[in-house]
Amino acid sequence: MIYKRNASDFMTGNVIVAGVNNTFDQVMEFFTRHKIQHLPVAEGTRLIGIISIKDMLTFMQDYLAGSGDVSKAALNAAFSIEKVMTANPTTVSPDTPQKDILEILAAGKFQAVPVVKSGDLVGIITNKDITRLYHYDATHIL
């Protein structure tokens, strides 16, 4: 039934993760290849930030305003994931109730929330996960 789940029941557990040394080109490849819009940034298993496709577009816009060189080499040289990511993002635990996660995402400040247990990244919940959950409930629960 709706609102009876915790984060661990519907999070995406196999998370694609970036590291602080990833280049602009590598981050864009993650987004493109895996068809995702949010990418946690970790050192080992420790979450240190999150970067979105919107963050990358903002970086590109700011970069283009100050430079005429849009080569991959120039973008990679100008890019620092630590400067573009949101450090210490809002997180939830695997035991966080669905209702609390809905409140976080409904506030509209962001569209994804990492799931962390004892500082380690164990999953992510995005608006897509919420949509899948509601679709499942609408088609399976009578």
Q: Report the count of strand segments.
A: 5
Radius of gyration: 17 Å
Strand content: 15-25%
The run of helices and strands is HHEEHHHEHEEH
What is the distance, rounded to the nearest whole angstrom, between the alpha carbons of the first and last residues? 9 Å
What does the overall shape look like? elongated
Range of helix content: 40-55%
Number of helices: 7
- State the name of the first-level CATH class: Alpha Beta
* Second CATH tier, the architecture: Roll
Number of domains: 1
Low-confidence stretches: none
Q: Given the helix and strand composition, which structural class is it?
A: alpha+beta
User: So, the CATH homologous superfamily?
Assistant: CBS-domain
Q: Spatial order of the strands in the main sheet? A: 1-2-3
Largest sheet: 3 strands, antiparallel
- The CATH topology, please? CBS-domain
The residue-averaged pLDDT reads: 91
Structure report:
There is one protein chain. This protein is α+β, with helices and mostly antiparallel strands. It has one domain: CBS-domain, CATH 3.10.580.10. It has seven helices and five strands. The strands form two sheets. A three-stranded antiparallel beta sheet has the order 1-2-3. A two-stranded antiparallel sheet has the order 4-5. A hairpin with a 2-residue loop joins strand 4 and strand 5. The radius of gyration is 17 Å and the shape is elongated.
Provide key terms for this protein.
142 residues; alpha+beta; two-stranded antiparallel sheet; CBS-domain
Q: What does the secondary structure layout of this molecule look like, with pairings?
A:
Blueprint: H1 7-10, H2 24-34, E1 38-43, E2 46-52, H3 53-66, H4 72-78, H5 81-84, E3 86-87, H6 98-106, E4 112-117, E5 120-126, H7 127-140
Antiparallel strand pairs: 1-2, 2-3, 4-5
